[in-house]
Write a structure and sequence with these properties.
The protein is an alpha+beta fold. It contains twelve helices and six strands. It has a six-stranded antiparallel β-sheet with strand order 1-5-4-3-2-6, with no helix packed on it. Strand 3 and strand 4 form a beta hairpin.
């Protein structure tokens, strides 16, 4: 029949031949470009064609406990519009609970999934992003280099524009972690001028904030007596204000982006602390804890406030309740 997938093998299969399960359970669906859909269990993919096990109705005289009958079919990717994969709760739970402790499991999921990156509706990009983020948290050069490679693959091949955007954000952070900060900053500056996607813009601003803070710290190291230098003072103030403006950008303009806004507020707290302005550090920490209490940055802010002298906290409270 014209337009039907090529039947490669027709066989009898006992339950469990496909991924250890009855192929009737959790069926995937392939939607073809001309409108046909094919349901079954995807069993392989080589980048050019998808292999699927299609469950066939039992014969009329087959016993009720007979092994399922399926046909193995091969569908060329050029004919595929999209694929809807069956849910995989075990996999999804691993991704939700992903930490450094189970990174090897996430790596295995990525190796099994990465060839599906370009196939619409696949979860390959989500898995890869999760794995790359775990690698980046490792804070060592080898892990950051591997994360950079994965981010680049996803940015180039993923079917989802959202995944591509997240991969680009991750790539910029990985570039900094692997010593390519200058290149990342140049790209972030270009993004800051042209990006329309708030997520990419926020990440670019954060990278620029980190670069500005680094420049500020270097300037203060090179100019320890900047307060007494009429020429150094304006440059210190410029770097200081620029760093704060960049860190506070998401909280001021995209406050609903909880993690980004809280991250920026904590960055501002760190800048205030390095400037020994504990009053502003305390005020910003209180804002962070009040507005974004469930974030990891709020936890850090609480720990910081515990280290402050009671006299400062009392003085600040009295200032806040004055009419």
């Amino acid at each position: 029949m014209a337009g039907s997938p090529r039947i490669v093998v027709l066989a009898l299969a006992v339950a469990g031949i496909v991924h250890g399960q009855d192929p009737r359970n959790g069926q995937d669906t392939i939607f073809l470009r001309h409108g046909e859909r094919i349901a079954g269990k995807i069993s392989g993919f080589d980048g050019q064609a998808i292999r699927m096990q299609r469950f066939l109705p039992p014969l009329p005289d087959a016993p009720t406990d007979a092994a399922p009958v399926f046909a193995s079919v091969t569908i060329q990717c050029s004919r595929v519009e999209r694929v809807e994969f069956s849910s995989d709760e075990a996999r999804d739970q691993k991704l939700r609970n992903a930490t450094g402790a189970n990174i090897s499991e996430i790596e295995t999921l990525w190796r099994e999934a990465f060839s599906w990156l370009a196939i619409p509706r696949s979860s390959a990009a989500e898995i890869g992003l999760c794995y790359a983020e775990l690698l980046l948290r490792g804070q060592d050069f080898a892990s950051a280099s591997k994360a950079l490679q994965i981010f680049r693959i996803i940015e180039t091949d993923a079917w989802s524009e959202q995944a591509v955007a997240r991969a680009r954000q991750g790539r910029l952070r990985a570039m900094i972690a692997t010593g390519s900060a200058q290149e990342a900053v140049v790209e972030a500056e270009e993004i800051g001028r042209t990006a329309e996607d708030p997520a990419i813009l926020i990440e670019a601003k954060f990278i620029l904030a980190q670069a500005a803070e680094k420049s500020l710290r270097k300037f203060l190291t090179d100019n320890p007596r900047w307060k007494e230098d009429a020429f150094a003072l304006p440059e210190r103030d410029r770097l200081y204000n620029e760093t704060l403006e960049l860190y506070l950008y998401p909280a001021l303009f995209f406050g609903s982006d909880t993690d980004a806004a809280a991250r920026g507020l904590w960055g501002a707290v760190e800048v205030y602390r390095s400037a020994e302005d504990l009053k502003l550090a305390l005020e910003t920490s209180r804002d962070l804890v009040s507005i974004y209490p469930e974030t990891v940055y709020a936890k850090q802010a609480r720990a910081f406030m515990e280290t402050l002298p009671d006299s400062l906290k009392t003085q600040e409270n009295e200032t806040q309740i004055k009419p």
